[in-house]
Write a structure and sequence with these properties.
By secondary structure, the chain is α+β, with helices and mostly antiparallel strands. The protein is built from eight helices and seven strands; from the N terminus they run H-E-E-H-H-H-E-H-H-E-H-E-H-E-E. It is about 45% helix and about 15% strand. A four-stranded mixed beta sheet has the order 3-5-7-6. A three-stranded antiparallel beta sheet has the order 1-2-4, with helices on one face. The longest helix is centred in the N-terminal third of the chain and has 29 residues.
Length: about 210
């Protein structure tokens, strides 16, 4: 039991200490809590003395859980497939404002995982020259732009607070998820509709 506590304590210490920053353009969190929880669980199971039959059962359960996680990732990939063509239309170096009006997912609980609010972060990791606003402020977010460098943007959970005069001029493209007909009409009056794919809509600011 003491060894289990030592492993858990060291892991918790790593989560709290190892995140670091790369200024001035972005910050990176080196350690994610979920990965450490999986590691601690694996260590604890490995240290528990058990019969061969029990070990086989635990291994089978671990295999089933891993298979389920992989299957979920595959389904998420299919769910996000319509977004791919839109991201390809955005040139590197462009300033993009993602606005998520509909956070519905068949595979993620919207109250826990905030579906689609992290899309900008993932695309930034793929193309770090593309400028996005901060979507969520949290020390555990993998990428975050310093507050003094981030462009104005509506709160992520209140997309209807988008205002053309306050936000529109700071971006070249607007990536919308699940906008209503009224929202589409609002953007069409000030921007050009470039692409529609599933629930995702891409607008380009009209010069």
């Amino acid at each position: 039991a003491r060894r289990w506590l030592i492993h858990a304590g060291l892991t918790l210490l790593a989560v709290l200490v190892l995140p670091f920053g790369k200024e001035p353009s972005w910050t990176f969190v080196n350690m994610r809590l979920s990965a450490h929880l999986y590691f601690v669980l694996a260590v604890l199971v490995a240290l528990i003395p058990m019969r061969s039959s029990h070990a086989i059962g635990v291994a089978g359960l671990a295999l089933a859980l891993t298979t389920g996680l992989v299957a979920t990732q595959v389904r998420l990939g299919r769910e996000l497939a319509p977004l791919g063509p839109l991201l390809k239309e955005i040139p590197e170096g462009a300033r993009v404002l993602p606005i998520v009006y509909t956070r519905n997912s068949d595979n993620l609980h919207r109250g826990i995982f905030d579906p689609w609010l992290h899309i900008a972060t993932y695309d930034w990791l793929r193309r770090p020259t593309t400028a996005f606003p901060n979507i969520l402020q949290s020390p555990l977010m993998p990428v975050s732009i310093p507050a003094d460098s981030a462009a104005p943007a509506p709160p992520p959970y209140r997309p209807t607070q988008f205002d053309w005069d306050a936000h529109g001029s700071h971006y070249d493209y607007f990536l919308l998820c699940g906008p209503s007909k009224a929202t589409l009409a609002q953007f069409s009056a000030r921007a050009d509709l470039l692409w529609v794919s599933g629930e995702w809509v891409l607008f380009g600011r009209r010069n």
